[in-house]
Each structure stands twice: as C-alpha cells, then as structure tokens.
C-alpha cells in the first residue's frame, strides 16, 4: 500500500529538519513515497539520495511565482533538469541579495543583525546552498530580543509592505511552467486553496495555467481541509490533471502546515493517483531524454 507525502520542506529552505532526519522521520511514519520540495532550491531533495532507504524519493522543488501572492508551483521530475537548476542558481543569488537588503533596512530601524553570522548559521544548518529567507531573519530577530516571536517580526517589520520588506525576484507562470516541462519535470499547482479564490476565478486561473502546460493540482493539502477536497478533486480530473497531495511539513506543530503524512488518511485515491504520477514522471523523463538525443544528432 502506498503512503505518499509529496510536499515536505527541509532546513535547506525554511524547514527545520535536515534531509537525513526528515527521511528518518518519514520512515518512522511509514511513508512509502516522498518528495522534498524546498523553496527555489533542490539541495535538500538531492541530499536524500545520499542515505540508504526503502522510501521512493521523488526529486522536487517549490517555485514561488510573481503572478499573484501565494501562487506556487511544485515541480517533480526524474531527470537532471539542468536548465531548471541553472535558473534556481540565479534565484539563489537574488535571494541572498534580497536578504542583505532586508538586513540593511532592519539596521536602519535600529535592529542590527550580522549577515555574516546569519549566513554561517544557514551553511551549518542547510549546507553551502542554504539561502537566507524571511523565516531565518525572523528567528534571528527573536534571538536578538527585537521581537517576541516570528509572528511579530512579520507583522511589524518583514511581512509584505512592512518597513523592512523587500520584494522577491520570481518567475512568472508563463516562464516557469514551460521551463519545468522542457526539462522533463511535471508542473503541479501547489495548495490552490491558499489563493483564497472563489470557484469561477480558480477555474479561470486553471484554464490559463493549463494553456501554459500545467500537469497537476495539489488537491490534498491542509489548506483545503476546511472546504473539503471534493470540489478540487473534481476540478483536477475535469481538467485532465494529475492529483497530488502532501503535508507541506516544515516543523512539528507549527500551527500552519501539516505533520508528516497528514494527508494520507484523507487522500482516499492515493494509490491510483500515485500510479498515474509515476507513469507520467516516466513518460516525461523519456520525452526529455528523446529531446536531448534528437538535438545531439
């Protein structure tokens, strides 16, 4: 029996567990298929393959898109994905520049933080590719005593449109989806209920994303639980899209995301949906390899 969790985060982005510990915890919970989908980096996903395990690990990444707040794209693939990785490296540089600007703004507000120390901590936690995001800055603000908790850091200083906020550089859906398809990965709309769109607007968004080459929807995500999964499930299948699911795990009991494997009891069609996903991954890999061979000739 398949027990999948296809949306997990490590400390290579904004999660708390390192890849090895996350892999161990997934094993303890009986996960059979997992995907680390860190934000704009595949470092954590790649590291899974260093450790022995019976879990099927599917390479993945979560891309933040600039089209609208909260619009994220999950990308899964069994190929090297060289062009996608090149774009991710560019985004990593831009994320570092953004972090430095935000730290500069906090200093102007009387809350100095050391970028050098913060970067050293990130390298220790998430390896040389561990980038600094807003959660890491917020935790540093708590440690320095500037705020009581991370929520206060975001609400007063580094949340959207707050005094120390700096806009992130991101791809558009029109850039990201074709690129993901080109390298043999599958683009999947992440947590659509977090967009808080009424059904007609969500349908319109899906129509547009499908025209760009969207291949799936993350139906089974904690954010969809309150409304139920039936409407999203029907929407995905009506559009001929793959159905996926995951906990969006970052850390235990964080009040926002799910625990490891949280969607498994709710994802009744997981066996069939996983078979479809694995078949689609295999087909995407074959197409990408065929494209490489044809260009080589």
Describe the protein in words.
The protein has 10 helices and 8 strands. By secondary structure, the protein is α/β, with parallel strands linked by helices. It folds into 2 domains: 4-80 and 174-296, TIM Barrel; 88-158, Orthogonal Bundle (DNA polymerase, domain 1), CATH 1.10.150. The strands form 2 sheets. Strands 4-5-6-7-8 form a 5-stranded mixed beta sheet. Strand 1, helix 1 and strand 2 (33-36) form a beta-alpha-beta unit. Helix 5 (134-143) packs across helix 6 (150-158). It is globular.
List keywords for this structure.
single chain, alpha/beta, TIM Barrel, DNA polymerase, domain 1, 2 domains, 5-stranded mixed sheet, globular
Short recap of the structure:
By secondary structure, this protein is of the alpha/beta class. 45% of the residues lie in helices and 12% in strands.
CATH superfamily of the largest domain: Metal-dependent hydrolases
In round numbers, the mean pLDDT is: 93
Number of strands: 8
* Main sheet makeup: 5 strands, mixed
The succession of helices and strands, N to C, reads EHEHEEEHHHHHEHEHEH
The CATH architecture classification of the largest domain is Alpha-Beta Barrel
Poorly predicted regions are none
State the strand order across the main sheet.
4-5-6-7-8
Global outline:
globular
Number of domains: 2
Strand content: 5-15%
CATH topology of the largest domain: TIM Barrel
CATH top level assignment of the largest domain = Alpha Beta
- The helical percent reads 40-55%
Distance between the termini: 43 Å
């Amino acid at each position: 029996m398949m027990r999948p969790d296809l949306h997990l985060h490590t400390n290579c982005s904004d999660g708390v567990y390192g890849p090895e510990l996350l892999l161990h915890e997934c094993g303890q919970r009986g996960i059979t298929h997992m995907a680390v989908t860190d934000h704009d980096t595949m470092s954590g996903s790649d590291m899974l393959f260093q450790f022995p395990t019976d879990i099927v690990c599917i390479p993945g990444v979560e891309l933040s898109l600039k089209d609208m707040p909260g619009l994220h794209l999950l990308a899964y693939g069994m190929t090297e994905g060289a062009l996608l990785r090149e774009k991710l490296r560019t985004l990593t540089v831009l994320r570092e520049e953004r972090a430095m600007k935000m730290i500069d703004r906090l200093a102007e507000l009387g809350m100095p933080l050391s970028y050098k120390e913060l970067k050293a901590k990130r390298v220790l936690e998430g390896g040389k590719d561990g980038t600094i995001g807003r959660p890491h800055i917020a935790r540093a603000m708590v440690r320095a005593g500037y705020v009581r908790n991370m929520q206060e850091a975001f609400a007063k200083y580094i949340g959207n449109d707050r005094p120390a906020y700096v806009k992130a550089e991101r791809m558009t859906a029109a850039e990201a989806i074709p690129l993901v398809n080109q390298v043999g990965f599958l683009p999947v709309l992440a947590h659509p209920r977090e967009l808080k769109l009424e059904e007609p607007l969500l349908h319109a968004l899906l129509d547009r994303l499908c025209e760009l080459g969207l291949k799936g929807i993350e139906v089974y995500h904690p954010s969809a639980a309150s409304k139920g999964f039936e409407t999203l499930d029907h929407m995905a299948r009506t559009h001929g899209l793959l159905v996926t699911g995951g906990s969006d795990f970052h850390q235990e009991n964080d009040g926002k995301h799910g625990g490891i494997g949280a969607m498994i009891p709710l994802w009744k069609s997981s066996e069939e949906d996983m078979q479809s996903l694995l078949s689609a991954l295999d087909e995407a890999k074959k197409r990408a390899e065929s494209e490489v061979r044809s260009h080589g000739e």
